């Protein structure tokens, strides 16, 4: 099915509008019904466009039929919602998502030799654009672990000197860049570390018409870390990206910011608290409802105070 039949929008116009008006469209990852509803509630509350991001592993976990069944029953009339494949690692995975009804796909060839990254990125774009589906590609490598399919021990900053040629050859609609963000919850050694804004500024100068994307950009709120540890968790030395730095990145053509770890932390923190304070609870609806509400509140906060996308529909 085509994404328009689900009432979805693609990300091309969303990101161009965001880039020209000084805000970023949030791309929140989800994994189940509760995390999906949390994102939708936050977007509706704030009147924000939103990108529903799902990785290959999360898609495999939910199954195509369950996922698209949920998407088919979302009420989209007044919303701007995109369904995005996050870190597709092959042409086939991107093609499958497009055929299912995704309105946006990312091909992540960042670990491939440059010529191979360009070749497959262009192949994905050629197929996607036949159906008005937006594409995202990545140059540079983010260290850290997002899931079992997206991880790296190394970090490689995006080279500003090759971005213009890369975008021209691949015909990608947006470009994910590596300027010091990291997948996972261990992003910084301390709160004073800064992103490479010199690199980002040069990239924006070299490809002024291309919206830029930041992955690995969760802020890792310490209140969630503290709550998780208070109620039996064991997370130490986790530092995220300073919100002020993300807001500065938005001023340099970053039009899409991916958030995953913050949502996981918000969700997990409330479940741990519920289990500790109410050991008699056995009804999943009770603790999942609490976790969903906490994730919703965090998404609202990030939409308003980082993305600036509230009231931008």
Structural class of the secondary elements?
alpha/beta
Largest sheet: 8 strands, parallel, barrel
Q: What would you report as the Rg, rounded to the nearest angstrom?
A: 18 Å
**Morphology:** globular
Count all strands and give the number: 10
Helix content: 40-55%
The number of helical segments is 12
**What topology, given as strand order, has the largest sheet?**
1-2-3-4-5-8-9-10
**Terminus-to-terminus distance:** 25 Å
Strand % is: 15-25%
What is the N-to-C succession of helices and strands? HEHEHHEHEHEEEHEHEHHEHH
Mean of residue pLDDT?
92
Uncertain spans, ≥5 residues at pLDDT below 50? 143-153
Description:
The chain is of the alpha/beta class. The protein contains 12 helices and 10 strands. Helix 2 packs across helix 12, helix 5 runs parallel beside helix 6 and helix 9 packs parallel to helix 11. It is globular, with a radius of gyration of 18 Å. About 4% of the residues have low confidence.
């Amino acid at each position: 099915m085509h994404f328009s039949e689900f009432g979805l929008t693609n990300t091309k116009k969303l990101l161009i509008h965001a880039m020209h008006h000084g805000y970023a469209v949030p791309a929140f990852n989800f994994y189940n019904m509760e995390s999906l509803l949390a994102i939708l509630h936050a977007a509706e509350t704030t009147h924000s466009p939103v990108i529903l991001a799902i990785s290959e592993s999360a898609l495999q976990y939910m199954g195509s039929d369950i996922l698209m069944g949920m998407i088919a029953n979302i009420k989209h009339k007044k919303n701007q919602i995109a369904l995005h494949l996050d870190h597709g690692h092959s042409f086939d995975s991107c093609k499958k998502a497009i055929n299912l009804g995704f309105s946006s796909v990312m091909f992540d060839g960042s670990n491939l030799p440059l010529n191979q990254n360009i070749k497959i990125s262009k192949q994905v774009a050629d197929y996607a654009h036949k159906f008005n589906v937006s594409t995202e590609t990545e140059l540079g490598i983010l260290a850290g672990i997002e899931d079992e399919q997206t991880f790296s021990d190394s970090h490689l900053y995006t080279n500003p000197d090759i971005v213009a040629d890369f975008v021209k050859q691949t015909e990608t609609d947006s470009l994910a860049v590596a300027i010091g963000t990291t997948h996972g919850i261990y992003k910084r050694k301390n709160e004073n570390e800064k992103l490479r804004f010199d690199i980002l500024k040069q990239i924006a100068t070299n490809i002024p018409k291309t919206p830029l994307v930041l992955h690995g950009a969760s802020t890792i709120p310490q209140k969630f870390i503290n709550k998780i540890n208070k109620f039996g968790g064991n997370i130490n030395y986790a530092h995220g990206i300073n919100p002020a730095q993300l807001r500065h990145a938005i001023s340099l053509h970053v039009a899409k910011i991916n958030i995953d770890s913050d949502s996981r932390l918000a969700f997990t923190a409330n479940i741990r608290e519920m289990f500790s304070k109410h050991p008699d609870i056995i009804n999943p609806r009770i603790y999942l409802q609490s976790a969903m509400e906490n994730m919703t509140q965090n998404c609202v906060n990030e939409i308003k105070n980082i993305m600036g996308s509230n009231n931008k529909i």
